[in-house]
Amino acid sequence: MIFIGFNWIKFWHVGEHLRMFSKNEEYQITAVGRYYQTCFLLARDIYKKRNKKTLKGPSVHQNLIDEFKISKSDTDRKIGIKLNELRDLRNNADYDENFNMKNVNFTKFKSKELLNIMEKIKDK
């Protein structure tokens, strides 16, 4: 996996630890955030490596998603779509009053899918 500085996969493992440690909502919500953040940061690093620039600002998450979604590459567009799906799940966990606990395992599954895609293109 591509790493620019910190190994972001460690965030994913923190999420997995939290998910398994306690079924309390606060642990489950935080696990969702760690799964998403891992994928976001790795996608950001891929973008930075390819484009020699870093996206910044208050809309950085959406801007990164949009950059991947408008790519000519099918794989990149898939990354953008899946990252957007994960962001929606993370937003449900962080901001909705009615957090759906079923989303925790679904987020884990979706994040692993996205990590596998990014692993295949890490050096391109």
Question: Could you explain how this protein is built, in words?
Answer:
This protein has 124 residues and is mainly α. The chain has one domain. 74% of the residues lie in helices and 0% in strands. The radius of gyration is 14 Å and the shape is globular. The N and C termini lie close together (12 Å). The model has no long low-confidence stretch (mean pLDDT 92).
Query: How would a crystallographer describe the biggest sheet?
Result: none
How many domains is the backbone divided into?
1
Helix-and-strand structural type: mainly alpha
The rough form would be described as globular
Termini Cα gap: 12 Å
- In helices, the fraction of residues equals over 70%
In N-to-C order, the SSE pattern is HHHHH
Give the radius of gyration: 14 Å
Give the averaged pLDDT, no decimals: 92
Short description:
With 124 residues, the protein is an all-alpha fold.
List keywords for this structure.
mainly alpha, 0% strand, globular, 124 residues, 5 helices
Secondary structure blueprint with pairings:
Elements: H1 9-21, H2 25-51, H3 60-69, H4 74-95, H5 102-121
Helix pairs in contact: 1-2, 2-4, 2-5, 3-4, 4-5
